[in-house]
Amino acid sequence: MALTLDACVAQHQGDRKEQQDRVGLMAHPRLKGTVLAVLADGMGGHTGGALAAEQVVHTAQNNFSSYAPKDEAAGDLLRTAIHEAHLLIRTSRFLNEKDPHSTAVMLVLEPGGATWAHCGDSRLYHYRGDRLLQHSADHSYVEHLVRAGKITPEQALIHPNRNVLLTSLGDKDDPKIDVGQAEVQPGDNFLLCSDGLWAYFSDAEIGGVLAAFPAREAAEILINRARQRCQGEGDNCSLAILRLLP
């Protein structure tokens, strides 16, 4: 069955002095129906985090432009892109005397399937209609506590160490990279977003918005609600929405 893609990327600087998130969406130059979405949340002082996030998006898009499914699995493509971006960010520390780091979440949509990879706490959500099929598990201290049964997901949202990551691009150690795959069908919705967005929503509320509205309108609704709920203390807020329609 032929599918139509309704997609949108959006950002808000929040209440920060600088936008250090980066997000991108591109169609493959040769492969029909093959699309990459990538989002990165940079960290590392003035301009350092922004440069790290920019490196993630740039590296992913460069690698994707030469992607050939007959020669390389999509999961390997994304894993390589994250690792290469990590090495480039590490190298930049010696050039600009900063300490840049970044999260990364990437999605390749191609006929019949979706593949994603992530490192850090920027998330990917996969819904069928408004029903959550899965979302990526954060590489964070509070997620570790949740999995160990020491705190609840609700407690994680207000934990004082909720922003502490266990891995990221630019660390001295190689990044932890998780890869996932799924078949797709009409009515599937994907959301990539930074913690400046997902921190203010339940999974069910996100699914309801994605199922009920076109991508651009859904992006506006989610960002506006996040801004209302952050009470003047909002982080950079970025997202990419991809909706599959018959």
UniProtKB/TrEMBL annotation:
The lineage of its organism: Bacteria, Pseudomonadati, Pseudomonadota, Betaproteobacteria, Rhodocyclales. SUPFAM superfamilies: PP2C-like. InterPro entries: PP2C, PPM-type-like_dom_sf, PPM-type_phosphatase-like_dom. Residues 6-244 form the PPM-type phosphatase domain. This is Serine/threonine protein phosphatase PrpC. It comes from the Bacteria. SMART domains: PP2C_SIG (SM00331), PP2Cc (SM00332). It comes from Azospira oryzae.
